[in-house]
Amino acid sequence: MRKSTRALVGLVGMDLALAAGAAWMVWQVRTGAWNAPDPAASISQITSTAGGAIGIVTAVLLLAFVVHRRRGN
Fold first, then answer.
1. CA–CA distance from 16 to each of 6, 9, 19, 29, 68 (Å)?
2. Domain count, the chain
3. Closest CA relative to residue 50, chosen from 16, 8, 9, 10
């Protein structure tokens, strides 16, 4: 497998893992398994943090993909 393909597979895998983790945390807050003084604020914080993390991971791994693709790897 080429390095550029590995970068894309890693991108998709990490994005899915972050999205699944965020969905699981939101579900925990909504069902009451995690006590939160303000569930709406907690859910907002979870989704904004996960969105930022997904954006950073996507930018870094897309950059790695482009660099590897230009080098022919």
1. 15, 11, 5, 20, 22
2. 1
3. 16
10 token code pair: 């890693």
Which one-letter DSSP state was computed for residue 73? -
Q: State the number of CA atoms in the 13 A half-sphere of 26 facing the CB.
A: 16
CA distance 35 to 58: 31
Domain that holds residue 9: 3-71
Query: Could you give the CA distance from residue 22 to residue 46 in angstroms, rounded to a whole number?
Result: 6
What pLDDT digit, counting tens, does each position of 19-71 carry?
999 999 999 999 999 998 999 999 999 999 999 999 999 999 999 889 988 98
* pTM of structure: 0.85
Other CB atoms within 10 Å distance of the CB of residue 22: 19
In degrees rounded to 5, what are phi and psi of residue 31? -80, -10
